[in-house]
TrEMBL record:
The lineage of its organism: Bacteria, Bacillati, Actinomycetota, Acidimicrobiia, Acidimicrobiales. Keywords: Antibiotic biosynthesis, Iron, Metal-binding, Oxidoreductase. It comes from the Bacteria. The keyword tRNA-binding does not apply. This is Putative oxidoreductase.
Length: 322
């Protein structure tokens, strides 16, 4: 199938009925679509500049904001996906404009425009994520009282700057005792929250899994933002909409950057299938967002001797993977 047909483009400034129909098909099939009409090109351009500056600066400036096992925010270059090491370095931060959570952010020294640019980016993408969830609600034809309980929260959300080098991101003299690199730069996975807004540069390498299991390239389209549905949305819709399974192939000739905004539910939200979508056959048991997130974060730090926590662990009838 052609990529245009598989991954439809929705103009968020004025979505047509045909675009809603295409969004609904894509969400049932694989969970990926593209947004245009967002009006954020200039801010996105400036964000790329800041991300590149951070990743090309002297490594010691990044090491100074390295994350630790108490706090997952900051820089890291040896993350695991499915027990294999990813070929990338990342910088994670949460809402810079809410002091109670900004206190956990680790801002690097020596980059004047980094924090203000990323703070503006965070504001704009929080708003866009809300509007994107509203598109999905409309495609699902949900009543207002249900919509109110199935939203995201900017203070539990986060942004990640991803940098994929050619080869191993960890310097040779630090590789002793680390797990081997995976076959993929980023192993296949779903994102945990409601949905993700993803920017990718012009390099390419992102792949989506279609319903038939085939891997399809999500080619860069200038001016568009990739949306992928995530785990909480799949649970809410009782599997009618799919959390997008995706991965990134290894870089062979040039490095690559991407910037996902992960839109997450409120901390204390109870995640379970929406009654009118599940009828009397809910496919998941309830879990509290905070607990799910804690389990997923712990997996990424170290190999806990089991596969990563995922929503399948909450499927009714599932046996624990641990
Ligand atoms: O780099 C990409 O295109 C995807 C990144 C991603 O899936 C993630 O960070 O969760
Ligand atoms: Fe992802």
């Amino acid at each position: 199938m052609a990529i245009d047909e598989l991954v439809p483009t929705i103009d968020i400034s004025d979505p047509s009925d045909d675009e809603f129909a295409a969004l609904d098909r894509a969400c049932r099939d694989h969970g990926f679509f593209l947004l245009t009409g967002h009006g954020l090109d200039a801010l996105i351009e400036e964000t790329w500049v800041q991300a590149r500056e951070f990743f090309t600066a002297d490594r010691s400036l990044r090491v100074a904001v390295e994350r630790d096992d108490q706090n997952p925010l900051g820089w890291f270059d040896r993350e695991l996906t499915k027990r294999k090491r990813d070929s990338k370095q990342v910088f994670d931060f949460t809402d810079p404009n809410t002091p109670a959570v900004d206190a956990y952010n680790r801002w690097p020294d020596g980059f004047d425009r980094f924090r203000p640019t990323l703070a503006a980016f965070y504001d704009a993408f929080s708003d866009l994520a809300e509007r994107t969830v509203a598109l999905v609600h409309r495609a699902l034809d949900l009543p207002d009282d249900v919509i109110r309980d199935h939203v995201g929260d900017r203070t539990t959300s986060s942004v990640r700057l991803n940098h994929y080098p050619v080869g191993d991101p960890v310097p040779e003299n630090e590789r002793d005792g680390l797990r081997e690199l995976g076959d993929m730069a980023l192993g296949y996975h779903t994102d945990p929250g409601v949905l993700t807004l993803l920017l990718q540069d012009a390099t390419g390498g992102l792949q989506a899994q279609a319903a038939n299991g085939d891997w399809v390239d999500v080619e860069p389209r200038p001016g568009t933002i990739v949306v992928n549905l995530a785990d909480a949305m799949q649970v809410w819709t009782n599997d009618q909409y799919r959390a997008a399974v995706h991965r990134v192939v290894p870089m062979t000739s040039t490095d690559r950057m991407s910037i996902p905004y992960f839109f997450n539910p409120p901390r204390s939200a109870v995640i379970e299938p929406i009654g009118r979508l599940a009828g009397d056959a809910p496919r998941y048991r309830s879990f509290v967002w905070r607990d799910y997130m804690r389990a997923r974060t712990e997996d990424n730090y170290e190999d806990l001797g089991a596969d990563d926590t995922q929503i399948a662990d909450y499927a009714i009838g599932a046996t624990a993977t641990g």
